[in-house]
Amino acid sequence: METARRYDIDWLRIIAIALLLIYHIAIIFQPWAMFVGFVRSERPLEGLWTPMTMLNVWRIPILFFVSGMGLYFAMRKRNWKQLIGERTRRILIPFVFGFVAISPLHMYLFQAINEVPLGYYPHAGHLWFLGNIFCYVLLFLPVFYALKNRGEGRFKKVWGRLLAHPGGPLLVSVFFMLEAALVKPQIFSLYAETWHGFFLGALAFFFGYLFMYGGPTFWQTVKKWKWGYLLLALGLYALRYIEFNREAPGYLMALESNCWIYAIFGLVHHYLNRPSRVLVYLTQAAYPVYIIHMFVMFFGAWWLLPLAMHPMAQFVCLTVFTFIVCYLLYELLIRRVGVLRPLFGLPWKSKRQKGEKLLIKEPTLAKETN
């Protein structure tokens, strides 16, 4: 199995989570925000949604791909029992804690802002993603260990030859197109707690693992053909925007989604596959920030939305507020209070210097912080 550290994959997850925060903040300024459980500004910025429609077809699938890649690294030195125990600590415990303690907090703010009766409402909320990931681990683990134990078998060689061709990744997209055609989601980008989101996530997780399993071939291909995939993605987006009012048939959106993802893989692999002290820090921070960002965002909206400000200024201020407060909560509380660390997917003890040395030597995705 591949042992070289992959800084680009760490960056992929960090960038995807940062964009997810911005995407969620943009939802607050859409007239339909309440229908998806978000607080809503009375002064919408509907024009803000145009760039978000470019983002929303790949923002979640890319995280599922990266999570499958993370499992590949996590399996290197663990048997199946060790891996399930480690996934339970890293994924299931934060999911359960978030279900009963974090998501109810932002639901409380939602109730308060909309002046409805206050109540305790435990639910997955934005953490549905973690529940799906844990299911995929249990579902695919026998297959992945079977592949690992086969070593350099025939399947791996055939798979590598397929991925060496620029059409190979596009052929993988056929599975995603079939999912969209069979499940028929009314809105492609509604992933949370839907069968469409579950099956699409399963495919992305599965192929994320296989892309790493196939060795460097996939990465060489997407790096070489990154601009081609990007042009194809832009063309499909233009078609969707002009001909279909931003919601094309599912199979076209699935193909567009994968083209964006392959282009991003190639760009990040080309430009960001190098060490950085900032990367070491952000890799640790990304998972806790993902868990707490909805509460922080709703709290900021509660304070900012009533102010007499232009809605674009509110959007910018809310974005800055969310990132800064999430950083402060992570740095001053979550990172430093030992009992909180495992609830947010971090190791029990800080191990600052030792931990940072480990991060420099080993792929961070081996720890699977989504």
From TrEMBL:
Membrane spanning stretches: 12-38, 58-75, 91-113, 125-147, 159-183, 195-215, 227-244, 250-272, 279-305, 311-330
Naturally occurring in which organism (per UniProt): Euzebyella marina
Protein name, as recorded: Acyltransferase
Signal peptide segment: none
Acyltransferase domain segment(s): 7-330
Superkingdom per UniProt: Bacteria
InterPro entries on file: Acyl_transf_3_dom, Glucan_succinyl_AcylTrfase
Keywords of this entry: Acyltransferase, Membrane, Transferase, Transmembrane, Transmembrane helix
PANTHER family attached to this UniProt entry: BLR4337 PROTEIN, GLUCANS BIOSYNTHESIS PROTEIN C
Entry keyword annotation includes Ribosomal protein: no
GO molecular function: acyltransferase activity, transferring groups other than amino-acyl groups
